Amino acid sequence: MRRHRVVIVDDSPTMRAIIRVALERRADLEVVGEAGDPLEARTCIRETRPDVITLDVEMPNMNGLEFLDRLMRLHPLPVVMVSTLTQAGAEASLSALELGAVDCVGKPTGADDGSFDTLAQVVVQAAGARVSPRVPAPAPTPEPKYQPGDRMVAVGASTGGVEALMTVLGGFPEQCPPTVVTQHMPANFTTSFAGRLDRHCAPRVAEAQDGDILRPGHIYLAPGGARHLTVHRRAGQLVARLVEGDLVSGHRPSVDALFNSVANAAGPDSIGVILTGMGSDGAAGLLAIRQAGGITIGQDEATSVIFGMPRIAAEIGAVERQLPLHRIARAALSASRTPVRRNA
């Protein structure tokens, strides 16, 4: 069994010790170094050559985000942000994810904190992530005269999804098809992420509210936490519903829960898109969309941070078209205007 080498970067010796204990509970993780600030981290990384780094945001000598930006441009490595679950922490973590961090977790608050297990699992996943030197992405150029057809779009993503969603949804025009999105993300983060997407994208982006009528020009993001975002048909209109329930495919909100509801409510009027992510959430639901007559698109391996969810979806026959990230928005928009073929 291969052991993934980890460096912990945090200015608090107590927090470094807590994180070390959390990580070393797993036999496949080995903490090979610690650093109290980014300057120490540079030396530690050179000497230990880790597979993955955990990184705090607020540190002396250099802000964690500034350090991350330099690292991803000059010496890219998988990075997991360990942040406070506050509004400021959410904003900083989202900035880190845009800069190339693989994932973020809430900072543990004590020895019995449930995020310990999550932290170790995320670090293992991050060790296998695809990272490359960061280069500025071209500005999206939405089609200015686009008019939506009769279809809606459903998108699912997990690890690496923040950057992927910024790219895909940033390519949507102001009058995009009604679009629903589930991104695996902590509860406190989705409000900030919706606001960030809204500022970045031409359409209106907001967290979904129970009972929202799905309208063109609007993107509805699943709130993190205790409910699944689903879609239902009511009086001939498609409506967002936030449904309490158990984990589905290991997640809440779940991409499978969203996609299965879209297959049932919209069927051939739907387009399903599965993006980068660890695990299999969304694969079965995407297959349901395809079997219901909808159009399905999967992100390709070369542009996925983690080629897990799209890979499994492709293996079970759920993906009709596998595309690089920069081509997905245009493909979804084109598909939305394809005439719907209905069974006689």
Description:
The structure is a single chain. The chain contains eleven helices and 14 strands. It is an alpha/beta fold and about 350 residues long. The chain folds into two domains: about 5-125, Rossmann fold (3-Layer(aba) Sandwich), CATH 3.40.50; about 150-335, 3-Layer(aba) Sandwich (Rossmann fold), CATH 3.40.50. The strands form three sheets. A seven-stranded parallel β-sheet has the order 8-9-7-6-12-13-14, sandwiched between helices. Strands 2-1-3-4-5 form a five-stranded parallel β-sheet, with helices on both faces. Strands 10-11 form a two-stranded antiparallel ribbon. Its EC number is 3.1.1.61, 3.5.1.44. Keywords: Chemotaxis, Cytoplasm, Hydrolase, Phosphoprotein. This is Protein-glutamate methylesterase/protein-glutamine glutaminase. It holds the Pfam family Response_reg.
Keywords for this entry:
alpha/beta, 2 domains, 344 residues, elongated, Rossmann fold, five-stranded parallel beta sheet, 36% helix, Protein-glutamate methylesterase/protein-glutamine glutaminase, cytoplasm, seven-stranded parallel beta sheet, Sig_transdc_resp-reg_Me-estase
